[in-house]
Write a structure and sequence with these properties.
The chain is built from 10 helices and no strands. By secondary structure, the protein is mainly α. The longest helix has 30 residues, at 189-218.
Length: 268
């Protein structure tokens, strides 16, 4: 029975990956993700120059900024569809078999991320998105559960590990394995540079974000946790903080432009 269900699930996943429509929409998900990173990068630079609040420099702030542009509402509804398609595509990769276990686990993690971004886009376009204290509120609730503090710390360490992974992937140019043609063919020198800068900058931001969760767990203070906005605020508070935030913000924008190329050349 279990084997039959597994075979059915694998066949469904393989069928999803053979859908040209789903593939095109999933590629659109990479493009929307790129736009999101560009806007987050711009907001981060505005934070550093004092023309925006650090609370705006996260995914919710970026989606809200997009919604306020002409045609922004329609674009966000497309983002909902594109993120859902990309999430489903990653789920299909995770369950279709034929890949290494580590690759399937990474695909499952990416599926959760993209589906969560789709939900966030729905919340923004319908006016139901939470404020900047959402992460600390969630962390406070989690800490009240048995073993919750340890779980928050584990989440923080996991995010830090993800940041290190991004930095290494960018520095060693491992992201080229995600693109058709590798280091030659359609992939130009500019795309390689954008990918390296973007992955490293995003890794730094994730490292700071994860560290905030670890600090929240150690101090048993959920107010220490936060999202990207808190990470940028923490960087801004360091010596030469404005320069750091501008550098990371430009890196996010570079990652966004790289994502546009990924939408075209990604291995699917």
């Amino acid at each position: 029975m279990a084997q039959s269900i597994g075979s059915t699930g694998k066949a469904a996943a393989q069928g999803a990956r053979s859908s040209r429509t789903l593939e095109l929409l999933a590629r659109g998900g990479y493009a929307v993700s790129g736009l999101l990173h560009v806007v987050v990068g711009i907001l981060a630079v505005q934070v550093a120059t004092g023309s925006a609040s650090s609370e705006q420099a996260d995914q919710t702030g970026a989606l809200t900024a997009i919604a306020q542009t002409p045609g922004g509402t329609a674009l966000l509804w497309f983002a909902v569809v594109a993120f859902a398609a990309l999430g489903l595509w990653q789920l299909a990769v995770a369950f279709s078999g034929g890949a290494e276990t580590s690759d399937r686990l990474k695909a499952a993690g990416k599926a959760v991320l993209y589906l969560a971004l789709g939900v966030l886009a729905v919340q923004v376009v319908t006016g139901a998105a939470g404020g900047s204290g959402q992460e600390s509120s969630f962390t406070a609730t989690l800490m009240e559960k048995p073993g919750g503090t340890l779980l928050v710390g584990a989440v923080g360490l996991g995010i830090v590990a993800g940041g290190v992974y991004h930095v290494v992937k960018g520095w060693r140019k491992k992201f080229l394995e995600d693109l058709q043609g590798g280091t030659s063919g359609h992939v130009g020198r500019a795309v390689v540079t954008l990918g390296r800068v973007g992955y490293i900058a995003k890794g730094v931001a994730l490292g700071v974000l994860g560290a905030l969760f670890v600090v929240a767990a150690v101090q048993h203070d959920p107010e220490q946790a936060g999202g990207l906005d808190a990470a940028f605020a923490t960087l801004a508070a360091q010596p030469f903080g404005a320069v750091l935030v501008v550098a990371v913000g430009l890196g996010f924008a570079a990652y966004g432009v790289y994502s546009f190329a990924r939408a075209r050349y990604a291995r699917m």
